[in-house]
Amino acid sequence: MKLVTPDFGLVIWMTLTFLTVLFLLSKFAWKPILKMISEREKTIEDALLSAEKAKEEMAKLTANNELLIKEAQAERDALLKMARDTKDQIINEARDKASKEAERLIEVARETINNERQKAITELKNQVATLSLDVAEKLIRKELSSDGKQRELAESLIADAKLN
Amino acid sequence: MAQIFCSNAIFKTMRIFILSVFLLSTFNLVASEEVEAATEIAENHSEAGHSKSFDPGHMITEHIADAHDWHLWGHTHVPLPVILYTEKGVEVFSSSNFRNHESHNLQPYVGKHYTYILEDEVVHVLNNGEVDHSVSILDLSITKNIVTIFFVFLLMLYIFISVARAYKKNPGKAPRGLQSFMEPLIIFVRDDIAKPNIGKKYERFMPYLLTVFFFIWIANLLGLVPVLPGGANLTGNIAITLTLAAFTFVITTINGNKHYWGHIFAMPGVPAWVLIILTPIEILGVFLRPFVLMIRLFANITAGHIIALAFFSLIFIFGNGGESVGAGLGVGIASWAFTVFMMFLELLVAFLQAFVFTLLSAVYIGSAVEEAHHDSHGEHHPEAETQMIV
Questions:
Q1: For the sheet containing B122-127, what is the strand order?
Q2: Which of A155, B33, B271, B359 is in the most buried spot, having the most CB atoms within 10 Å?
Q3: CA distances from B47 to A118, B41, B54, B106, B332 (A)
């Protein structure tokens, strides 16, 4: 039964060496190793967390950017529309003004033309009258160049006057 | 105690696990022992002329026991220091003094205080040619097993201090070399043994669990190595497993909280008359747990060595001391094939036994430091507890 009888010397040596090694290992090996491992695990976890965070922030930023772009686009569209409206308005106004001016000018021209025409007609009339008088004078002079004719005229005149 | 095992899943896994460990132990074989056995047997053969027939029983017992010198081959022994603490004082001398240089047989040694003789690796005092049992001596010799203990511990110090240095050298970086081999094991002990079984306070017990785990594992593996640093049956020695189990017992007892002792002396929620039966069982359980821890490791490794040596002895029994070489050769080839297979199994068992010892230590420590959680009180699993102890 030597096999199952613990040898006292062995127990003593084992205890002494085990305790010494336990002390040495825990001081110089286990504690630093475990500390380093858990520190590294923490670092990795932190890194993963921050990466996740960065990703989220990125997504947020992208969404924000899109919103900004959309807003900018909307603003640009609004501005363009306003500009177009203003342009149209200006053009319309100008057109109105121009047409009015043209009308006015046409009116003025028409009036002037009328006046000129009246003037011309009057002058023409005067000239025609003068010419007619000249013609009549010449004709009369010719008609009345002989005495007989003068008498005849005088007689007709008298006849007319009598009739009246 | 009982509450820890309330979880059926844990309990089931444990049962299957323990069962498989026992099954494995049945097939335990140690190749190194076979190689050593071969040299031993060869030695016996050379001495055949001296009409020394092969005695497997004696050979096996010699191989699994501790020794005062390190037997290498034939008559070559590495002498080791013998340290004796007697009533008259301390004596230190070489173990080679116990061996006659001519005949290689054991002989008495005349020391300063007494005359000593080595009998079955036990040092006795010789008085007028008779063993005197009245003189008590304390044998503190550096035996084969103690040399192996020193070797294992020096190896551990070297390995883990250099690993720790590697961590300091490049903090926060990926592990390299030896560091990357040891890190998963350290994390395994931490995450699969300490954390789930001890709970929040696991950190305090990590140094102990890691030291025990690597000591048993390296010692088991060294047992597989047939040449000098290996070959000693360290974890199959009851003194070693006794010391290790005693450490677990001391740690459990020192750290036992009110909840732990309360459950031993007065299990809450149990009628008084049941306590009369239960309390002695619980008190017995306190001592039974480290006892079983001691027996399990010892029996697994020793049984493995014995079976291996027995199988190997078959070759020489069939060989009939060189008379029927054919039969010996035939059995030898079968034995060799079996050894290759068993060597792989043994590698697994070496790890498994280290794991089981550390795991159960963690479970026991966990039960001592566990805080009361009232939800599961009054619900006990005595069966689970028995399973755990066995």
A1: B109-110, B115-119, B122-127, B130-132
A2: B33
A3: 169, 10, 10, 16, 21
CB contact under 8 A, B66 and A18: no
Strand, helix or coil for residue B89: strand
Cα–Cα dist A23/A32, whole Å: 13
Residues from chain A that touch B236, judged by Cβ atoms under 8 A, are none
Mean pLDDT, chain B, integer: 78
Q: Which pLDDT tens digit goes with each residue over B264-277?
A: 888 888 888 888 88
Q: Say how far apart CA B178 and CA B159 lie, in whole Å.
A: 8
ipTM over 0.90: no
Tens of pLDDT, residues B337-358: 777 777 788 788 889 999 999 9
User: CB count, 10 Å around CB of B261?
Assistant: 14
The nearest CA of chain B is from the CA of A46 a distance in Å of 12
Instruction: Select from B121, B172, B215 the Cβ nearest to the Cβ of A40.
Output: B172
The amino acid sitting at B319 is: G
Domains of chain B, by residue range, sit at 2-43+143-389, 81-141
pLDDT at residue A48 greater than cutoff 80: yes
Residues of A in contact with B244 (CB under 8 A): 14, 18
Residue whose entry in the numeric block shows the structure tokens 């173990």: B95
Chain A CB contacts of B61 under 8 Å are 2-3
Do B252 and B368 meet the contact criterion of CB atoms below 8 Å apart?
Answer: yes
CB within 8 A of B257, min separation 6: which ones? B368, B369, B370, B371
* Whether A9 and B238 lie within 8 Å, measured CB to CB: no
Q: What is the DSSP letter of B106?
A: B
